[in-house]
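Review box. Two proteins, two foldings.
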Amino acid sequence: MTPRLAHELEVARDLAHRAGQAIMAHYQQDVIVEYKEKREPVTIADREADHLIRTGLQVAFPGGGLLREEAEDGPARLDKERVWIVDPLDGTTEFIDKTGEFVVQIALTVAGRPVLGVVYQPVHNLVYYGVQGQGASAEQDGRRTELHVSQQRDPSQMCLIASRSHYTGFVDAARHKLGIDSVQRLGSVGLKMGQLSQGACDLYLATRVCKEWDLCAPHAILLEAGGVLTDLWGKVPVYNQPGPAECRGLLASNGQVHDQILEACAPLLHMLER
């Protein structure tokens, strides 16, 4: 690993841990819930974690590009080669419901590609991280495990992981078409991708609209664990886009038969237009 990437990983891990502790300070309390556009919830925990990460990144990497869920976007980042993409609390609904299924996500992109990702679950002091060309790992209470996706090639024998709160008719129809019986339901994109990256499941299907900050950090980790992520039409996300970019529906898998699964799902895509 280059000294530059090593330093960037160290900073990202430290900020994710500190943001997680700030979130946990509010976890057992009754927090006021506000709503952004499209009725997306936000709390003081989101804002405190965002402030901590933003300040830390700006001090460590002055002049760097930054895209955050909890901030108005602007064009300045589009001219930067290295851009940080941050979701300070992925799984705000799960935080409010006190399920524990929420994470801090910090990613670094270079020329639109994810090269570093950190996903931290403060409830269990569990961190997933990956760096381009260096593999992916999970650490919990000082124990480190290398991450590798499963090698399952038979879709009917795969375990599907899906959203706890966004399990749609499309996902269920795809499950039946693939002949899958085993299904896990979990909150937070980062946690689901972590399960996939460590081989605890084989594919992840979703139909919700995902923003860059939802996907970038777990995408970096999944790639280093050997997996593949596309939208439901087979397009690989590119980051630091104007807008920012949105991905409507995604398929993340162990990569063994990714194209075969996309092909099986193709006749069902009309369901997303309803």
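Next protein.
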Amino acid sequence: MQGLVEKVNDAIEFLKPQIQQMPRVGLILGTGLGDFSQQIKQHATIPYQEIPHFPHSTVESHAGQLVFGTLNETPIVAMEGRFHFYEGYSMKEVTFPVRVMQALGVEILIITNASGGMNPQYHLADIMIIEDQINLMGDNPLRGINDDRLGIRFPDMSAPYDRALIKLAEQQALELQIRTQTGVFIAVTGPNLETRAEYRMLRQMGADCVGMSTVPECIVANHASMRVLGLSVVTDMCLPDALEPADISKILKVAAEGGQKLARLIPRIIAHLG
């Protein structure tokens, strides 16, 4: 049976002949950013199903392809659609693309998502810059035998999201007059949304937003010594004393509104990476 490193090598062997320039920045495009890749000067677009060992995205709003190219002269690779634990994939499968990015030489990973806002100071379509996270998914992508070629056994997580990148994102958002928050993201398994009692518990634990992704990718990126920036679009308000039934069509509409903000913000961040 092939190990993780061997599977990553298979994917790299397939991808490298199709790539003009090795990427410095990786992007995971969440709900609401389906059109973002139009800003990329694309060199190659590769469907997930063609890449050895890549899972297949089952979420309808996710295109399911890797886009290689440049953005503001910076070589990047963007995931149009991610994989979720609730889809039935293992944590290692969910995070396999991050391992591939690691092998391609990605130094900075920008993760985006759509989330439920539990902080009453937040508003719909706000962008929360993630400063810390809580893993309530019941699993960890690093569980099992550690391969030292990928990272150390016990990676430090005192600052999972790079402080300099947080500061840069805040500065660029201010210049663009984009309203942002800075807070804690908590990840749950899903796919059901939470009960009122669960929202109360999550808020009391110190979380500002809740979602079903991002944390596994962040853990693996830290294990791989990448710098990570997390950007979350608040798509619905999850206030237990004023909770209404979720309307997915409204959530997707707000996600698209927030996605337009991220489509302005992310290129500015990349342009100022130095």
